[in-house]
């Protein structure tokens, strides 16, 4: 059965607004890996668990067609609304049943989604649809944080984030633990498998992006469902301490802040 996370429209809207597009560098590294042993046309890439499209759009410069598949209708609606491209098709579709012909796809990606799938069934579908030499790329990330050059501020930010992730920990659905462990115990379906060095993405954002990111986490959504006043209290305590740290004036959200997140990425190749 497909999990019930991400099915609600307000969660999908927060997700779409506060989860930035993933770094194009990951698409480039995926294509480089594919090209090491595959020299045919780059016809189809499939992004499974595409959410609101942030991990699908980066594939568009490389492939004739990109399919973004997700089990949540609300997420697909956000993708169609906010990240439409002429060569992307978004579809409501579960990872365990991939609607492609055998040996027809060059690349399958799963960004921050692999841990939600029934891996035995998903991997067998990936094995079926990939061309020989085709590639599966699974990658994930856990937090979006402000970047500080000043070591003291960095220490304070790390300690604040350690604290909020500790508070959220009991609320993570069990599936997320595999992602938090960087998929270290996942048995990938192909023998040739490579973990690439972490990719760190920097970009400019606002205080509200940092708050929105935490609100988009499934652990926070579960805390909110189980005890709304606890969730309100959690987010306002976090907001106050973050404002102090970032020196953001109370009345506005215009200050641009340097933000970063780290991606953990595994690539493997069908024989
Ligand atoms: C954390 S989001 C990642 C979204 C996007 N890839 C990104 O990086 O922003 C995980 C997504 O996986 C989807 N998902 C969970 N289980 C799924 C399944 N069995 N089949 C397809 N999608 C699934 C959820 O609906 C959700 O949109």
TrEMBL record:
Domain of life (superkingdom): Eukaryota
Classification via Pfam families: Methyltransf_11
A single GO BP? methylation
Q: Does the keyword Transferase apply?
A: yes
Can you tell me where the transmembrane regions are? none
Specify the Methyltransferase type domain's residue ranges: 46-137
Q: Gene3D superfamilies annotated for this entry?
A: Vaccinia Virus protein VP39 (3.40.50.150)
- Is the keyword Kinase assigned to this protein? no
One annotated GO molecular function is: S-adenosylmethionine-dependent methyltransferase activity
Which keywords are on file for this protein?
Methyltransferase, Transferase
Signal peptide start and end residues = none
Q: Which SUPFAM superfamilies match?
A: S-adenosyl-L-methionine-dependent methyltransferases
Tell me the protein family, please: Belongs to the methyltransferase superfamily.
Q: What is this protein called?
A: Methyltransferase DDB_G0268948
Species of provenance: Araneus ventricosus (Orbweaver spider)
Lineage here is: Eukaryota, Metazoa, Ecdysozoa, Arthropoda, Chelicerata
């Amino acid at each position: 059965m497909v999990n019930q996370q991400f099915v609600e429209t307000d969660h999908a809207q927060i997700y779409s607004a506060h989860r930035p597009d993933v770094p194009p560098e990951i698409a480039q590294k995926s294509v480089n890996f594919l090209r090491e042993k595959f020299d045919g046309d780059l016809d189809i890439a499939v992004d499974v668990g595409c959410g609101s499209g942030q991990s699908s759009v980066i594939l568009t410069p490389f492939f004739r067609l990109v399919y973004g598949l997700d089990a949540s209708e609300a997420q697909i609606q956000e993708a169609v609304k906010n990240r439409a491209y002429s060569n992307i098709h978004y579809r409501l579709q579960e990872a365990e049943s991939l609607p492609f012909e055998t040996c027809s796809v060059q690349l399958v990606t799963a960004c921050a989604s692999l841990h939600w799938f029934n891996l035995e069934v998903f991997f067998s579908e990936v094995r079926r649809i990939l061309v020989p030499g085709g590639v599966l790329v699974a990658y994930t990330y856990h937090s979006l944080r402000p970047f500080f050059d000043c070591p003291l501020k960095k220490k304070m930010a790390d300690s604040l984030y350690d604290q909020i992730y500790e508070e959220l920990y009991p609320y993570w659905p069990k599936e997320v633990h595999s992602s938090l462990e960087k998929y270290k115990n996942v048995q990938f379906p192909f023998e040739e498998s490579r973990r690439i060095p972490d990719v760190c993405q920097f970009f400019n954002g606002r205080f509200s992006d940092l708050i929105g990111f935490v609100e988009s986490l499934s652990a926070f959504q579960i805390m909110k469902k189980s005890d709304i006043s606890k969730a309100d209290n959690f987010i306002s305590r976090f907001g106050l301490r973050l404002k102090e740290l970032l020196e953001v004036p109370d009345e506005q959200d215009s200050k641009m802040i340097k933000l970063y997140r780290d991606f953990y990425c595994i690539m493997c190749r069908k024989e």
